[in-house]
Structure formats: structure tokens, C-alpha cells
């Protein structure tokens, strides 16, 4: 496994992502951008980059908060995330900066790029698609789904996969239906998979606070990953 930290800048903020690939070929290969949950780029996202690298992709766990910035509790995580939820145009610009940094790497086939994200990162990759980003596909795992308010009338080029827990208290059913309508009106190729008896953060083995609405669900984790791999095989080949 080859791992390399990539620094890039947006506005006055120095950011640092982790790039992973298997090192078996010098030919550019398809790449997947991985957007982090509300705490910042952590080992959870780094491990997803490694898992995708093992499958022959380039995995790039991006950073949206700043080099070395990582929340330690819900209060810190909220303080890091909310400025971007309150300024989606700024979030979208930062996402495009990360995408450009990934495309600039010599290991990457720049015309074969997808993006996945978890929780806050799920919202991020949906926003990439909403801005008309030229990526092959985006996949949101237990992501927030609310519209940004600045992308009406923009066609979605990316195929869209949403992996959602039916019992996620942070994303009511009305939000799912609204997203279906939004994606249909944008002309997107979309699919939404909803897992029963499943809460928020269902892919994270450390999530275990049902009172807060977060709980790991092994079946949904396994099924959603298998669905992702099928999706990536379709859109990147």
C-alpha cells in the first residue's frame, strides 16, 4: 500500500488529505474522493481510502476543516460543521478545491472520478453533484439530504446513490421524498436504498448511542458497502 499526504489550500486554510493506492501499476486509475463526517478527517475515512485502494482504485480522504483539525466531542464537531452548513456556497467551493487536488495527482485517471461521503460528508458529495461537478458518480452514506438553496436549475451530471437508514432521526422521510423529487427534476440517474430498523451512522462500529439517534448496524453496513462496489464498478468502468 502506498500512502501520501496531499496538501492543498482554499481561501486562507491549509488542508491535508490522505491519498492511497496499491502501488501495483504506474498507469492512472479510477479514483474515489472520500468526504468526512462532522468530526473531520479521521481514521474512519482513512481506512475507507485504504479499502478502496486494495480494490485497485485511488482513494483520497479529503479534509474540509484544516490540516490537523479534528473534533473531539459533539460540541466541537458541531462548531466545525455548522459554518459550512450555513454557507453552502463556501462548502461547495472547498469541495471543488479538493476534487481538483485529487485530479492533479499522477496516479489518477482524471476523467474517471467518483465521490463518497459519510454523514456530513454525504451531504458534501450530494452538493458536489448538485453543482454539476463532472464526476461519474456520488454515494452518500447516512448523509444529510437538505437542499443547499443555490443550485436550482443546475443539471446533475453524476449518477447518484443514497444509502439511508429508515430510522435516522436526523433525516425524516419527508427529506428523502424531497430529494427524490429534486433529483428527478435535475435529470439525474439516481437510486436510494433505505435500510429498515437502521439509525444514523450505521456504518461506524463505534456508533452506539440510540438516544442520540446513532447506532452501528452490521447488516446495513455490509449491504451498503456491497451496493457501493457495484455502483463504482458501473460508473467508473
Describe this structure in words.
The protein is built from six helices and ten strands. By secondary structure, the protein is an alpha/beta fold. It has a single domain, classed as Alpha/Beta hydrolase fold, catalytic domain (Rossmann fold). α3 crosses α4 (120-130). It is globular. The protein starts with a strand and ends with a helix. The model has no long low-confidence stretch (mean pLDDT 97).
The amount of beta strand, in percent, is 25-35%
Under CATH, the topology is which? Rossmann fold
Which word captures the global form? Answer: globular
Order of helices and strands: EEEHEHHEHEEHEEEH
Determine the N-to-C terminus distance: 22 Å
**CATH architecture verdict:** 3-Layer(aba) Sandwich
Question: What would CATH call the class?
Answer: Alpha Beta
Residue-averaged pLDDT: 97
Give the fraction of residues assigned to helices.
25-40%
Give the total of domains: 1
DSSP strand tally: 10
| Estimated radius of gyration | 16 Å
Major beta sheet summary: 8 strands, mixed
Fourth-level CATH superfamily: Alpha/Beta hydrolase fold, catalytic domain
| Low-confidence residue ranges | none
Summed up, the helix count is 6
Major sheet: order of its strands? 1-2-4-3-5-6-7-8
Category by helix and strand content: alpha/beta
Amino acid at each position: 500500500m502506498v500512502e501520501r499526504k496531499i496538501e492543498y489550500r482554499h481561501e486562507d486554510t491549509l488542508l491535508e488529505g490522505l491519498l492511497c493506492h496499491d502501488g501495483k501499476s504506474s498507469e492512472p486509475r479510477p479514483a474515489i474522493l472520500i468526504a468526512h463526517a462532522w468530526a473531520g478527517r479521521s481514521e474512519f475515512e482513512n481506512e475507507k481510502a485504504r479499502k478502496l485502494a486494495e480494490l485497485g482504485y485511488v482513494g483520497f480522504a479529503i479534509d474540509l476543516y484544516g490540516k490537523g483539525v479534528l473534533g473531539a466531542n459533539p460540541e466541537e464537531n458541531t462548531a466545525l460543521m455548522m459554518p459550512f452548513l450555513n454557507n453552502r456556497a463556501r462548502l461547495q467551493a472547498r469541495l471543488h478545491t479538493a476534487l481538483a487536488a485529487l485530479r492533479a495527482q499522477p496516479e489518477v485517471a482524471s476523467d474517471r472520478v467518483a465521490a463518497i461521503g459519510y454523514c456530513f460528508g454525504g451531504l458534501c458529495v450530494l452538493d458536489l453533484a448538485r453543482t454539476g461537478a463532472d464526476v461519474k458518480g456520488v454515494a452518500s452514506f447516512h448523509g444529510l439530504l437538505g437542499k443547499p438553496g443555490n443550485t436550482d436549475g443546475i443539471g446533475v451530471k453524476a449518477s447518484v446513490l443514497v444509502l439511508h437508514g429508515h430510522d435516522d432521526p436526523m433525516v425524516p422521510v419527508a427529506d428523502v421524498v424531497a430529494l427524490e423529487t429534486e433529483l428527478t427534476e435535475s435529470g439525474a440517474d439516481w437510486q436510494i436504498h433505505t435500510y429498515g430498523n437502521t439509525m444514523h451512522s450505521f456504518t461506524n462500529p463505534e456508533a452506539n448511542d440510540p438516544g442520540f439517534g446513532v447506532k452501528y448496524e452490521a447488516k446495513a453496513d455490509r449491504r451498503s458497502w456491497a451496493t457501493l462496489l457495484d455502483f463504482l464498478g458501473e460508473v467508473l468502468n
